[in-house]
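Thanks for the sequence, V.! I ran Response regulator FixJ right away. Repeating your input here for the record:
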Amino acid sequence: MRADAVVHVVDDDAAVRQSLAFLLVSDGLAVQTHESAADLLAVARDIDGCVVTDVRMPGVNGIELLRRLKAQGVHLPVIVMTGHADVQLAVEAMKEGAVDFMEKPFDDETMLAAVRGALERQADAAGRQDRAVEAKGRISALSERERQVLEGLVAGHANKAIAYDLGISPRTVEIYRANVMTKMRAGSLSELVRLALLAEMAD
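Predicted structure:
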């Protein structure tokens, strides 16, 4: 992690910006806050570190921010914050290049770990390809039903919707979901989605 790396917090809610900045600074991280995606985009070419952004903001939202950063050739790791009902948006964000998503309210230690992981993330293509092949190997070990449940989760569907689509009970989906998490070695839904999307790189 570079000594001059800065965590850029983007949120239109001042209270969220301040509390997240306080958390990160208390962990020894340098922080800069931005009240809109437009503010960040204005300086994006000149910054280093990572970005933590809300997905729902007036004007340029978190998804569009990712697209515009990519269009500018800016390859900063981006963590997206979402509400509990925004899993589908979070999946879309990860498909646009976000490295992680955090559901609000999030645990402080989980956020700090995600930020440090983003700052330390290896950018080399060979390393990404190795991780992609490993993720694909884990998916190949899933049963057909477990893969169907995984596909539903990556699509942002709730357990009840997956159960309806597959003609099984929500409780059975929970069991398959737990099996998928174990076999994929994923500690959270965001990590599971990231692994599934990463596996697509190995195709």
